[in-house]
Amino acid sequence: MTMPKRDTYTPDSLLAVAVEVFNERGYDGTSMEDLSRAAGISKSSIYHHVRGKEELLNRAVGRALDGLFGILDQPEAGNGRAVQRLEYVIRRTAVVLMDELPYVTLLLRVRGNTTTERWAMERRREFDQQVAKLLKAAVAEGDLRVDVEVRLATRLLFGMINSIVEWYRPAVKGALDRDQVADAVVRLAFDGLRA
Amino acid sequence: MTMPKRDTYTPDSLLAVAVEVFNERGYDGTSMEDLSRAAGISKSSIYHHVRGKEELLNRAVGRALDGLFGILDQPEAGNGRAVQRLEYVIRRTAVVLMDELPYVTLLLRVRGNTTTERWAMERRREFDQQVAKLLKAAVAEGDLRVDVEVRLATRLLFGMINSIVEWYRPAVKGALDRDQVADAVVRLAFDGLRA
């Protein structure tokens, strides 16, 4: 049994602990007891910070979604040829995913049993649809190939980008650099493996 | 309470039920009780077919792995320029994934708490390494770009292919056709989105 420690958590540092536990045990499989144990403070101390675990989920996926939707608000995502806007959005999406790794990992794993989970899935779908629209516009402008259906291309594209959460670990020595990964994603997405 | 039904299962049909439950609840989260309930037969009837749930896991991931390694044994994967062999392997990997959807889904989700899980992860890694070797050979032959590291390219490539399990549902009306998906994977992998 570990001794409870003094509660010196900030909203952000408590959230970081919670997200780690959610990603490890799954959101459904995590109890307030688990969170209390991982944080090393009592359940009532946690309730001093948040109303419950759903609020922690809400903040965590909110942080991931803010990062992603923030990309679409940048001028580079709104002006110019669609293909250039798409390139910007794809690169930035990969970067946000790596910068906010545990939060985006959680977002990609939620499965929709609570209001917050359904909301997160809905927002995620909205983001994907915005990217699909950009892809469609770039096809219409003649810059992207017409022989792969837009919906299918969007899915495969996100499949590639989202898979980064499975193996990217920034703290590992000799790990690939964030910008190196983002460059590779953009190159493969637009021009593929061929020389 | 459901009435137990007469045990008319074959090894394959019982395996199909088990894999469905494993994919839904996770392998760790599935008890023999859960399997008995899903199959509608008693636990002792299940033990008549298999020694336990690990044997079912072994058969299920074995089926996925046989499908994948079977690709590498084909003449098209062994003869000719590396880039052509790679194209064959990528296309067939996508097809096996769709044909053996629940089995490959399970394979991609196992996380290594039992001997069988660790073995499955090890075999999956071997398959990825075989593909990485092919990619390296195609780079050496001058057919693939040199500005994306082989290990990273392999990861992103499998990220794209493996993501198919997240959304491909063959029985859904209006769903994308298997060959259409495999074509798209090959086009995007080699030549990207650009027109």
UniProtKB/TrEMBL annotation, chains A, B:
InterPro entries: Homeodomain-like_sf (IPR009057), HTH-type_TetR-like_transc_reg (IPR050109), HTH_TetR (IPR001647), KstR2_TetR_C (IPR041490), Tet_transcr_reg_TetR-rel_C_sf (IPR036271). Residues 8-68 form the HTH tetR-type domain. Pfam families: TetR_C_24, TetR_N. One of its GO terms (molecular function) is DNA-binding transcription factor activity. SUPFAM superfamilies: Homeodomain-like, Tetracyclin repressor-like, C-terminal domain. Gene3D superfamilies: Homeodomain-like, Tetracycline Repressor, domain 2. The keyword Transcription regulation applies. It comes from the Bacteria. Keywords: DNA-binding, Transcription, Transcription regulation. Residues 31-50 bind DNA. PANTHER family: HTH-TYPE TRANSCRIPTIONAL REGULATOR BETI, HTH-TYPE TRANSCRIPTIONAL REGULATOR RUTR. This is Transcriptional regulator, TetR family.
